[in-house]
Specification:
It is built from 9 helices and no strands. The chain is mostly helical and 216 residues long. Helix 3 crosses helix 8 and helix 7 crosses helix 8.
C-alpha cells in the first residue's frame, strides 16, 4: 500500500513538472470546437448574398418584438384615441404601486423637484445654473391631466430631459400616482378624510379647544 502511495506521488510530481510555462508557435489543440469556428457575419460586415451586400438587416416591416406590442395609447403614450391626454391613470392604484412610485421618484426626481415636490431639490438649491424646477403644487400642475405628467416623464419638457430610456412604462405611472399623493398631502383638508376619521378629527379638535379653555 505504501509503495502504491509513493508511486502515485512520483507520478503526480512528474505531471506537475511537465506543466512548465513554455512558448510555442504551434496553435493550441482545440479539444472541443463547440461552434467556435462557425461561419457567420459580424456587425457591419459585407454579405454578398443580399443585393445591398449588408450583413445587418432591418426588421421585417410590420413585425413587433415579443413583449413590445403597444396597442394602448392610453397606457403607453398617456393619450386617448383622439390625441388628448388621459385624465386618469389607466392602471389600478394600490399601496404597492404608490410605494414603487415613491422609490422611483426619490431616485429620479427628488434631485430637482425635492422630497415634497416643491421644486427645491438639491440641484436647485445649489448654484449650478439650472433653470428652477416647477413645483407640483401650483394650480397648473394640480389641475393638469395625469397623461400630461406621464408625457413629461417619458419625453421631457423644456429644460427637463426625457426619462423614457430610464423609467419603464409602469414605473412612469407609479411616479404619476405618487406625485398626485404628494399634491394631496401638501394641500389636504379635513374633507379629504373618510367620514369616520373626519368625525374623530372634529372630536379631537373640540376636546383640545375645551382643554385650552379650561386652563385659561
Amino acid at each position: 500500500m505504501r509503495r502504491l502511495f509513493v508511486t502515485g506521488l512520483m507520478l503526480g510530481a512528474l505531471l506537475l513538472a511537465g506543466c512548465r510555462g513554455t512558448q510555442s508557435d504551434n496553435p493550441p489543440f482545440h479539444m472541443n470546437l463547440d461552434m467556435d469556428f462557425q461561419p457567420k457575419f459580424g456587425p457591419q460586415e459585407e454579405n454578398p448574398f443580399f443585393e445591398d451586400r449588408a450583413a445587418m438587416r432591418a426588421p421585417v416591416r410590420g413585425t413587433v418584438p415579443r413583449g413590445e406590442l403597444r396597442d394602448s395609447s392610453a397606457l403607453y403614450q398617456g393619450r386617448a384615441a383622439d390625441g388628448d391626454y388621459v385624465d386618469q391613470i389607466p392602471i389600478a392604484i394600490n399601496r404597492k404601486v404608490l410605494e414603487r412610485g415613491r422609490d422611483q421618484y426619490e431616485i429620479h426626481c427628488t434631485v430637482c423637484h425635492g422630497k415634497t415636490g416643491a421644486g427645491n431639490g438639491v440641484i436647485m438649491r445649489g448654484d449650478y445654473g439650472y433653470t428652477p424646477a416647477s413645483s407640483y403644487h401650483i394650480d397648473r400642475l394640480r389641475e393638469s391631466p395625469d397623461g400630461y405628467l406621464y408625457d413629461v416623464i417619458a419625453n421631457g419638457v423644456r429644460n427637463m430631459p426625457s426619462y423614457g430610456q430610464k423609467v419603464s412604462v409602469m414605473d412612469r405611472w407609479a411616479i404619476v400616482a405618487y406625485v398626485r399623493a404628494l399634491q394631496r398631502s401638501q394641500n389636504a383638508s379635513p374633507d379629504d378624510l373618510p367620514p369616520g376619521q373626519r368625525a374623530d378629527l372634529g372630536a379631537e379638535a373640540e376636546g383640545g379647544a375645551t382643554a385650552q379653555a379650561g386652563t385659561e
